[in-house]
Amino acid sequence: MALSLRALCKQERFYLDTMQNLLDFVQNYNLIRDKEQLPVWRERLEETFDKFQGNRLQMDLLEEDGHYLDDTSMEGARDIESVLETGLKTDASRAARDQFELNYCMSCLWSKAPHDVTPSSSRNPNQSQPSKAPTNPPVADQTQSQPQNSRNPQIVSNQTSSQTIPTDAPRASTSSSLSHCSTSLVANVRQIPSTVLLQTALVKTFNPAGNVLWARVLLDPASQLNVVSERFIQRLSVRKQKDHHVIGGIGKAIVVSSHSVVVRIQSHYTEFSADLKFHILNEITRKLPSNAVDTSEWIWPTDIILADPKFHEPARIDMIIGMEIYYDLLLDGLIRLGPEKPVLQQTALGWVVSGKVGVLPPSQSNTSIVHICSSVALDNQLAMFWELESCRSSSIMSVEETECERHFAATTSRDSTGRFVVVLPKKPSVLSQLGNSYEIAKRRFLSLERRLHVNPNLRSSYAAFIEEYRNLKHMHEVTDSQTSSSTSYYLPHHSVVRSDSITTKLRVVFDASCTTDTGVSLNDALMVGPVVQEDLISIILRFRTHRYAIIADIEKMYRQVLVHPSDHLLQRILWRDEPSEPIKSYELTTVTYGTCAAPYLATKCLQELSKLGQISYPAAAQMIAKDFYTDDLISGANNIEEGKTLCSQLLQLLQSAGFRLRK
Questions:
Q1: Domain range holding 9?
Q2: Nearest residue to 489 via CA among 591, 572, 590, 423
């Protein structure tokens, strides 16, 4: 095997010598010609190719390495005249100079562009030799048969050879027993940044008050449905209808729309208008186009009105109009702006622009838009399943998570009773986009009130829950002067009944993901924060090692952590005890279940408490740091005395911060 390996290295060396000599010749052709050194170079190249042919590897060695070269494969290497007498005196020399680089895979001596080896079938010793391949053009003619951006054009050829030295793209083999490296042509082609414009337009829509809201729509003849984003419907404030519909796309991906709405659209170009049914999805697609488009060199026809004057700038899509009326929108009129430029199509909404176009540099994006419905929830569930089944080390925190940790350390304090006081970890750039949330919170409260009216028992439990909030001073009423604050956020709320729960059968959940009239919710403006507790598998495995179990949970853990008064206005709710009373505004003063930052803030306070108690209560501090999963304690002791000591320390340490254990 050692001899074979040395032979392989020798073969590689001769091959690279050959390529280097030819490359030097191509790059310095003009200088060599001026100095009348062509005969010397001809002799040098012939000598090198002779060595290459005389030292090639045996068949079995090449097959052992995953490649095969037949007996006649290098006969054309001596045809130097075809290299010297063809097109190297033309502009092909400059193209070849750009194309050639000594980047070779040391397995197959092809370009280092990403490729894989296609294994050959076992070679039958009685199998006949492959048939002769057609003549391939020499290097000077590559500009006619291959892209000029190819980095590895073919060197030489021979009419009697069944194979040639590999080029940038694999050639079809005449025998299935031959192995080959499958290269990616795209990897080596220097392409001009481009994108494909899809047909977009601006249309007028109308809210219940008759006011006009402009919507950016995508005309999609491949869609059977019309789709609108939840963000836009919130701005439009139209009534939604329950309409469960499963929407499928490419790759059998599905997404579910639970509501639909009827919206009137009107053209700004013609008198066209239509009432269309749209299915509502949280997200339709990303901004279109993917990159800004350079239109500076386009020659526009006169007297046309574009359906979307800013079609070349990436922007959000509010609606997709499908096949239902697509052909009703098309009018006579098609204009091609020229090669490598888009096509203009006249429609009832104006002239739409579509087709392949160049984008403004720099463009590093290789993303294309294919309108399919993605099942993100299923992907997340599958990812969580594998994470649960794997014992993995903690991941590195993201930039946002690091900022959230820094924010907590800089802003968290404790009041006179020892309770933690936290400031909500906000994203200032998103928070500034927070719109009006009062109207949707009011509509949802009135809907809740109607449901409670037909269920007296549920209403009684719900009212008791709210009354407990007031009695514990976890919320307070907002005065009229405070109600007008423009940066406030109203949380819609609803009930979750758990009849099997021993402690809390009814829980009120606050919806911080409800979008305002600008399409932004409170959860959009909050940082989620990292996971600061140990994973459940580690906690359970450690729990199994104890002889005696210690289990408990923290009563109303989230509500034992106070929110700084400056953030109370972001946690407002609506409530009244009786339908005959006016609706009142309240502000929640504790960490609220339903905000995306609540789990982080509550568990981080526990972790912080464990650090503060390491000196006074070392055993309890370690238990808080390692044996809590959210608000549940899963721990134990090896004997009863140790268990009593742990429980005593744990109660005292937790009570110092206002946390109370129960079970």
A1: 2-188
A2: 572
